Known about the structure:
Number of domains: 2
Amino acid sequence: MRVHVLTVTVVLATLATLVDSRVVAQQSATVRGQATIAIPVSARRPTSAYPSRVVSSVVLAPASELRNVVVFLKDAPARPVTATRVEIRQRDEQFLPRVVAVPVGSEVSFPNDDPFYHNVFSLGRVRSFNLGRFPKGQSRAVRFNTPGIVKVFCDIHSHMTATVMVFNHPWFTVPDEEGRFEIPDVPSGEQRITAWHERLGDTTLTTHVEAGRASSVEFVLPVPR
């Protein structure tokens, strides 16, 4: 009898979860978009007839810079997320990739591919650590349990920097090489979507998310002149 009651309870709980998932799906939608980085370029054109003047134009940043952008739902409520494991490699005196975005509880490893020692550390309030110096072929890892932005450095090579962005919700992504991105299951209603770049800061747009219909957002991240 107890086994029968337990079985019924489990079945009902499963059905409730499925129903709840369908309700959430019906109340959410996918947000797709494009991110570009516009760089003002100024060039002087000398002339003997007129005073010197500056003519400005706009070009796009290298595609690789778009991999250092993180797009996310601003002021999103905390939601359970599944931790993951990612790598930031140390190669040619660089952190590669230079920016990663992970859920809370995730582990980031730092393999050393260079034929000399590196040191990986951070002094931030979100996550402070020092992995010490280690040679080529070794890797050390850090777990990030608090949401926020963590700046990472090497105390041997001061020009090396990386950023780990940690989220306590699932609504974040990194654009592809073309700047395209997609965030699924965004709650319906007026939502603020932010595109963050390590040197350009935040650019936030508001979009209306209608349940069951994809929304579109286009970011042009400005570079100071």
